Amino acid sequence: MKVAVVGTGYVGLVTGVVLAELGNHVICVDNNPEKVKLLQSGQSPIYEPGIEEMLRRVLKSRHLEISDSIAYATQNSEVIFIAVGTPPGPDGTPDVSAVKAVAAGIGKSIQHHVVVVNKSTVPVGSGDLVEEILISQGASPDLFDIVSNPEFLREGSAIRDTLHPDRIVIGAKRHEAAEKLVELYSTLEAPVIITDLNSAELIKYGSNSFLAMKISFINGLSRICEMCSANIDDVAKGMGLDQRIGRQFLNAGLGWGGSCFPKDVVGLVKTAERLGYDFELLQEVIKVNEDQTLHFIDRMETRLGTLSGKRIALMGLAFKPDTDDIRDAKSLVIIQQLLLKGATVVAYDPMATEHVRRIYPQIEYVADVEALATGADILVLVTEWNEFKQLDLAAVRALMNQGILFDGRRIYGKAAAEAAGFEYFAVGS
Ligand code: UDX
Ligand code: UDX
To answer: Which domains does the chain have, with CATH numbers?
Structure first.
């Protein structure tokens, strides 16, 4: 099938490259000339395991073209995905200006029938908005269909998630339009659910908000565990074995960050507000998430008396492992708070250092854990990259000034940390 994808971020690029790999002819479009150039030369502007190899393969086989022209993409595709960003605006309401701009570009260029697919996470009602924009730009209603096809891929495992989704959600007004997407995805083995536009949009917000709620719930329980010496891992295991609950997304930690959960939870609160419902439960989910990180820093301060002048070493900066993405990463809040309290902050991340350096040029960045630990008072595990799981803890301890380990993702365990000579504090214990 002839497909176009507008926006080459985590969602758009992975979608485009995977659809090309599946044998479609895909045009990926971006309005950033630097990104277009990079992609044309076979380099990925984002770090995502496996994406660059696949990109090169599909460019070579000519299944993928990179372009800066929405008009070219519209005129040479049967299905065109809108996969541009929808960052939160000042009050948390998703900013859909990029979606609107792309819709206008598509509307101006339509010459034959095309299915316009919203893949970006957009507030309920955005399908109708895109339709209005297309018509306002002169597109004849019989020359397009609007479909909502939300994306559920996770960064770090984006290719696998795209090839093996739990489900494919297709929201459409006309069944024929939905069928076009069913055909496009026919090689994937996944249940397909066809709904109206608003339901598909709400499935995305509902799913992300529910997962964030699960994490905030276990993090709330982790606070109770800290006070009554219960073991949060055992609690999560015992709860998770109930199939109605499930073990996934019950890992207690510093809380959820990233490009989706923070904006989607607020986005759903705002959508509810707009429609006249005060979704207090979700507001509390956000509050628990914020408190979780601040409480962790309070514990460091309690342990040392003051953080002023102390050398605090952060392991990991990305919002999760296997990505260079730092959007709403917990590391950013931690750095901000530590600097406010007068600490000296030193950090190491395998992929995300340069992104954080742009925001916090005043802290020290090092190239490995050895340099990080040297002379530090507290070592803080922020992001659970694999290389941090494989450390020789005793050797790391020997480099430090004070051997205090704060484990924000519970990867080490008390016994191993203490055997290596650490004084160990973890979320939940
Ligand atoms: C519930 C729990 O499911 C069970 O694990 C616990 O031990 C006791 O409470 P039960 O009382 O049998 O079990 O009711 P259940 O059918 O599970 O649901 C309770 C209420 O929640 C019902 O009124 C049901 O209509 C409502 N419900 C259930 C929902 O509103 N939505 C749902 O998705 C599920
Ligand atoms: C999420 C959704 O999972 C995905 O379906 C959607 O398309 C985009 O948003 P992503 O943000 O890439 O994906 O990462 P995810 O693995 O979901 O983690 C989100 C955040 O939750 C991370 O900060 C992670 O550290 C945190 N998390 C996750 C926990 O704290 N505990 C858990 O048990 C799971």
So the answer is: 2-195 (3.40.50.720), 285-426 (3.40.50.720)
